[in-house]
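DEPOSITED CHAIN:
***
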Amino acid sequence: MRIHSLTMTGIGPYAGREHIDFDAVGASGRFLLTGPTGSGKTTIIDAIVFALYGDVADSADSSKERIRSTLVGPHTESVIELVFSTGAGVYRVRRTPTYERAKRRGQGTTTQNGTVKLWHLAEVGGQPLDEPVTRVGDADAEIARAVGLSREQFTQTVVLPQGKFARFLRADSSERQHLLKDVFGTGIYDAIQDALIQASRDGARRVEQAAADLRGQVAALGRHPLLTEAPSPIETADAGEETADADQAVRPEDSSPDNSSPQTLPGGTQEALPLPMDDADREEPQEADDAPAQAPAQALEAAMAGAAPDLVALRRIGAQALEASSNRVASADARSEAAGAALTRAQSAREEAQSLHDLLERRRALVEEKERLAERAEQEADDARRLRDAERASRVRPYLVAEQAARRRAQQAVAALAARADQSGLAHLAEQAGVTSADSAEEATGSEAASHGAAVTPAALVEPLVREAQRQLAALEDDPSQAMAGATAADAAPRNSDAAETPIAAGESESDRAEALSPRDLDDLAHHCRREHGQLETLVDLEAGLPERESASQQREAELQRAAGQLEQRAEKLAERPAQRTALVEALEAARAAHERLDGLQDRRARAEERHRAALAVEQLSAQLAQWDHACAEAATLAREATERVRATRLAWISGTAGALAGELTEGEPCPVCGSTAHPSPAAAGTGGATRQQVEAAEYHQRQADEALSGAVRERDACATRLQEAQRASDGMDVPAAQEALEAAATALATARAAADGVEELVERLEAFDAGTEQERAALDAARSAQESARSRLEADREALAQDQRRCLEARGTWPSVTARAAALLVRAKEAEDASQDVDTARTALAQARSALADLAAALTEEGFTGAAQATAALMERGAIEALAAGVRAAATARERVRLGLEDPQIAALSGQEEDRLEAATAELAQADAAARQAASAQARAAESHEHLCRAVDGVEQATTVYEEAAGSSADLIRVANLARGENEAGTPLATWVLQARFEEVLVFANERLSQMSSGRYELIRVAEETSQRRRRKGLGLAVVDHLGDERTRDPRTLSGGETFYVSLSLALALADVVSAESGGVSLETLFIDEGFGTLDADTLQAVMAQIDHLRAGGRTVGIVSHVAELRDQIAERIAVRRVASGGSTLKVTA
């Protein structure tokens, strides 16, 4: 990595912009960064580190907030730009720190976050290859990838901050371990060590967890009832007999408490079954008899009692328990199968007994029902007869209902007709009261109304029709129950004495009856009244509008009178308009005269404005000319003084130079000026001589004075020229006279413009006035013509109104009005029409009543009834008929069902003496079912117990497998973790061992340089300084071997200041070499060494510089940060930090 240039603005003590070209200043391979203490040398290193990593070099002892200069205001931005190159290419990074800047709006400050931009350049000083990276995280990642070093590695290899060498040298093993971890990045080994330890702990926890799970599964297996007791010898001996006798044990006839299954206790619990014995038990039966048998649960406890579980014993015990449980399940299955067969036989016997029982019961019920039906035969026959009469009467019922409804409608219609006659009479009396006399009415109409006369009213025509309707209704009043079913005609003879008294003959036909009730006269009367009403409708409307027309005529008369007065006023105004027009013409002529004077007045005002401006310019230019005269005089004085100073300085410089040359002349050697070897009159060296720079400065000031004099003369001449032009333009007027002339010209022009601006308006007003006069004259003529026309129309309308009033008077006759007469005609027509409708209704209702009576007589004859009374007596409600019919049908159905039931072959085959065994078969079935349920329950318990045992054994097997896997996979891991933890012969953890190896490499490189810097006196060795039992040895102790003494080791803290510096420098350079190699061979072409050289004597300093020259020879550029004077004499290329009066610093680069 090589650093090419650094640019800073507002950084630390540097308030302005500072630029360092490291390619130029470091061309020789080394340069010096010098300056007073605290002036800002270390700030340059911090700026480089901040540009790359966003932090300062020594972030532990100082804050990156000091990057921001305190000498700049809130409006100034702090910026660092760094150009560097690596194997990945050339880069330019621009980074700004976080600082408080001024708000863009309002008062106060706000926090400006830090920013970064990273460009990948084609070459140093070239163009970017792509767009810059602006996100902080992305830019930091790209820089780390390109540089190949972290900030800690960079400050240990490229930038070696002051004080870090001595701290590393004097640190104890613990502190040195932290430093080396940061430099070499060995945290990965700590992570590996911690991961191995954590993994071993996890493995141990997995083994312990697996063991705990196994103990839990074994405990669950041990709690199974089959394993809680020792095997019974009796049960073992009788196992085969139980299977053979299973069928006999569950038979109902042999079931008893003594013969029940020995495997089931009264409480429903199961005894423990024996486990199969192994070969050893079979070979030594005597020992098994002598010693009590061990329960399987105790065997499980023995298998788990050791340090590690006996997995083989656990699997053997589980297999034996499964075998015993399988045998027990097979025995329970056999007993359940036998009990099921017995239950099937009992069920078949029960079904046969049930079938016989059902047949006997059915035969008994049929016989009893047959006897009951025989007892009710007479009643059922009477019910059948009543049902037939009710069904015949129900068919006659509609005719009876229709006849009664028709008679009621006829009665209502005749009553309505009689009421209509009464209403018509009352209406006729009211009409007579509204008419003055019938004779005057006949004279007024003069129409055919006289032929009808006042007596032709609806009431007079309705009365005979009412009497006829009442007569026909009386003929229907006989009770139809008296009619004989065999009558051929309902009207063959009078029904009672009233019918004989009617004027209509007894043998009249239906058409005669209809003709007697004809409403023809009523219809004619209604038609006549409506026709007369239609003739009066026009006059009714005409009469209604007469008052309105009379009022309108009066209003029109008043309006015509008002319009006549207005016409007189308009005629008077029209006569006044000629005088008004004459005034407008005069005003127009005056405005046109003012318009013709405008051009001359505008020229006058323009000339007055020019003179006024020129008069003002004369005053200003006169004052300026006086000022320029004074300035020219001063400039001439200064120019003369500058010329005199140049002459005097040049003479002093020549005198001094000649004296200096003369002082160096030697007799016989040529003069460097004239070349002569003889020097007869050498110049004497003066004490007041001047330098060449002073001569150049005096000449520079002379040129400036001459230029100032020339400029002042030019400005004075230009001002005089402008003054002469202004005097000519003002015509000799001063400012007050020119101002007065300008105001007079402006006033005259404004007055003329005001008068001239009205020309067009006056022309338009005159034209509009003439047009208005013509319009008013035409409108007045038109109004007079309209007045005359309106008067003519009013007279015609008045004549028409008089004629219409006479027509209405003639048409109303003796009635108050035509409307009253028309209303009376309309009422009479409506009465006649309503009466005609009532007559039709009565005639129709009477005809329908006679028809319904005839239909009823025919229906009675058809159904065989002698009269309506007999049919009515036979009538029943619909529900009663349905109930009676249902009873008759039910009786018939019951007789048929009993007959068919007794004829059934199964019933007919019975004698009635058969034995009913249903109760005994039911008891036998209950016993068989109880035995089957008991056997099934035992089978279910055995199966459930076996299933639980299988799950428990499977759980033990799975836990055993998990334990084997956990124990097998964790053994090697735990062993490796113990070694990494430090449980080894050396007692050194993995991370410390790696650091010891790296530290050995650093010491090898450091001793190579230290041997040359100390002339072979000192050598660094690694020692183990921490030997207490409480803390493991880190092995990173450091000692110094002094070869000039007794070869004993020394604590680095006993070294002097200079010895400490070059020993620390050896370590730092070695550390940089190792880190470079560890970073993939990163090429470090630029190196900064900060402070420490002031503690060295001359010889040691030369030795240290020789080592730095070795670095330079290897292609590195070394920057030494120091203020040692001897280094300034040795290194010509330098960056000098100088303080300024404002309190900050600035840079001077000497390449």
